[in-house]
Amino acid sequence: MTSSLPSFAPMPDADGFFGPYGGQLVPPHLKQAMDDINAAYAEITQRRDFQDELAQLFADYVGRPSPIFHARRLSQQLGGAQIHLKREDLNHTGAHKINHCLGEALLARFMGKKKVIAETGAGQHGVALATACALVGIPCEIHMGQVDIEKEHPNVTKMRILGAKLVAVTRGAATLKEAVDSAFEEYLNNPTDYLYAIGSVVGPHPFPMMVRDFQSIIGREAREQFQAKHGRLPDYVAACVGGGSNAMGMFTAFLNDANVQLVGVEPAGEGTDKQGRHAATLTMGKPGEIHGMKCYVLEDAPGVPAAVHSIASGLDYPGIGPQHSYLKDLGRVRYEVADDQQTLEAFMRLSRVEGIIPALESAHAVAWAMRVAPTLANDQHILVNLSGRGDKDADYVAKVLGL
Fold first, then answer.
1. What are the residues facing 385 on neighbouring strands?
2. Which long-range contacts does 269-272 make (Cβ < 8 Å, 24+ apart)?
3. pLDDT of 259-302, one tens digit each?
4. Which of 126, 203, 204 is nearest to 168 (CA)?
């Protein structure tokens, strides 16, 4: 990394592009709906009453700021760099997803929408959105692949308790990509009265920007907290990447810090050499189009998304946020991988050494930190965004490992 960096603000441009990625690749009749959302978002974020309400909810409902924990025992066992965890797993609903879901629910209320629709993979976005919609009093409909419903049963139960209508998606691979397709089709039935609350920094403009902005509180807190405690910034900041919301939320505050290496960790699944058995979009994909945006995509043929796999349902997606695509091309963020086995090992080791059960998604970033820490000096610091807790994954992991 050079000592000087280009300015990374403002992004995206007026048309929703991050360099060549992003945009609004939607049918003409949907463009007006996207523009209306963009205009409402621009208005609401300038209003003091909105900012005050969101700040109050972050503090008194979510429990922010989330702390940074120094994983001393893990660091000592590994040798080398010190590993620190930004504890988004301690948020209400157990993950970072509540940050943007509150913003989207408040936006839906402001726009007078009659229903909020969303997709979910691991169920964290679904639970968070069902929670936020219960809070503001708007009906919520969640589309979830049948495979993920069976795998993430605790979150399915929570969504139903919270009053969400759950739509099981059985087509294709019956995972996250199909859930996105299904939710978007329902949204198309009535974009005037419905809001599609996208669960990551993906989709047509303004969603990659909106979700990033709501999630950027993670990085702002972390930067201030780490500097206050250590008198310096971390050497590395790492986060798992599927669609990319938790990573973008963390990375945004550090983009202009030339001495901070940013690392996104993608799911290698059963191996990046096995087509259809990984979801390492930036590592193995190429620029393309999916779900209303230009970004890196894993494809079997032009315009045909490839089958993907990850042990973590929330990372099981053949696309990626357009801003991540741009940051890869610029070289500002380094994208690495962790496979299913490494992720399981990180899941168990963090649980048994520090008493913290991470989400399988977050365990990808922990796996990378465990791999790299021994190669670094003892006075170097790795800050990992622990994006969610592993309650939802505990039964599945126990079954896989025969515990």
1. 86
2. 269/308, 269/309, 269/310, 269/311, 269/339, 269/340, 270/309, 270/339, 270/340, 271/339, 272/337
3. 999 999 999 999 999 999 999 999 999 999 999 999 999 999 99
4. 126
- pLDDT band of residue 8 (cuts 50, 70, 90) is low
**Strand order through the sheet with 293-297:** 17-18, 21-22, 293-297, 286-290
Tokens describing residue 373 = 């820490």
Distance CA 130, CA 126 (A): 6
Catalytic residue among 75, 86, 88, 97: 97
Residue 377 burial class via C-beta count within 10 angstroms: exposed 0-12, middle 13-18, buried 19 and up: exposed
Hunting for tokens 């209003």 — which residue is that? 47
Which of the residues 88, 104, 119, 336 is marked catalytic? 119
Q: Are 138 and 101 in contact (CB under 8 A)?
A: no
**Catalytic residue flag (residue 387):** yes
**What pLDDT, on a 0 to 100 scale, did the predictor assign at position 331?**
97
DSSP per-residue codes, 72-129? HHHHHHH-SSEEEEEEGGGSTTSBTHHHHHHHHHHHHHHHT-SEEEEEESSSHHHHHH
Average pLDDT of the residues in 106-113: 97
Q: How far apart are the C-alpha atoms of 179 and 168, rounded to whole Å?
A: 8
Tell me the sheet residues that pair with 111.
none
119 is catalytic: yes
Distance between CA atoms of residues 342 and 21, nearest Å: 31
Mean pLDDT of the chain: 95
33-57: average pLDDT: 96
Residues 234-248 as b/e (b if ≥16 CB within 10 A, e otherwise) read bbbbbbbbbbbbbbb
Q: State yes or no: is 310 an active-site residue.
A: no
Burial 81-115 (b: 16+ CB within 10 A, else e): bbbbbbbbbbbbbbbbbbbbbbbbbbbbbebebeb
Q: Does the global pTM surpass 0.90?
A: yes
User: What's the full length of the chain, in residues?
Assistant: 403
List, in sequence order, every beta strand (DSSP E) within 209-290: 236-240, 261-269, 286-290
Taking only the tens place, the pLDDT of each residue in 206-239 is 999 999 999 999 999 999 999 999 999 999 999 9
Q: H-helix or E-strand containing 334?
A: strand 333-339
Q: How far apart are CA 265 and CA 252, in angstroms?
A: 16
